[in-house]
Prior knowledge:
It contains ten helices and nine strands. The chain has two domains: about 200 residues, 2-enoyl-CoA Hydratase, Chain A, domain 1 (Alpha-Beta Complex); about 50 residues, no CATH class. It is of the alpha/beta class.
Amino acid sequence: MSYQHILYEVSDRIATITLNRPDRMNAWTATMERDVRQAMDAAANDDDVRVIVLTGAGRGFCAGADMEALQGIDPNEVRRGESIPFDMNRRADWQTRYAYYPAIKKPIIAMLNGATAGIGLVHALYCDLRFAADTAVFTTAFARRGLIAEHGISWMLPRIVGHANALDLLMSARRVSAAEALRIGLVNRLSTPDKLREETYAYARDLADFVSPSAIAVIKRQVYDVPFQTLAEATIDANREMQIALKGNDFREGVASFVEKRPPRFTGT
């Protein structure tokens, strides 16, 4: 498959999706939206992929929407995706225009190498983990452009940084340093720019090599389902999944590899 505004590669069971408009700080376009969706689907359906890394080329991750495209946007266009046919086997909340990352059964790591703003921040929040350069800067941006909290960020951001911090970041649209982002939980860890790739991929390879894909898929779904469940529902769901896991090949391999003191050979079944 050919892409125009991204790069896509698979190595060591890790798929890397790179936003590739470095001359425009990877400003978001309709073409990039299509490319990222197709690449995410490709990685999700590739049995040779166990982890997905989303990053940006050049100095930034994504500086937000392309301003030239934004100036000519049709107000009705923003509602595109509301009426897509839902897969009844997946929660509808994770099937809207941008909020589909949580429905992917594989871990998605945002490797934030620089400026992360607006729609770029939205995509970073929908990733499961965020590893950032200690020089990166973050902003919601919307309020300073006369816009509201877009594409579900008003739901997602408070669940990551808390209610008060979310209101601060959304209403002020101020620039947030990497150090503050780590302190409030916006990112999981920081690295120096020259170590970011090495440390991110070391973590990704650890997931790919030593963690059960079937366990990750269920754990990811459990965590994203929790906001819609009571404690009793979450517990009953966990008990049901535990019964299935105990009959699976990955459970038997996990125990055997531990007892035999060798690396596991998980198959995801």
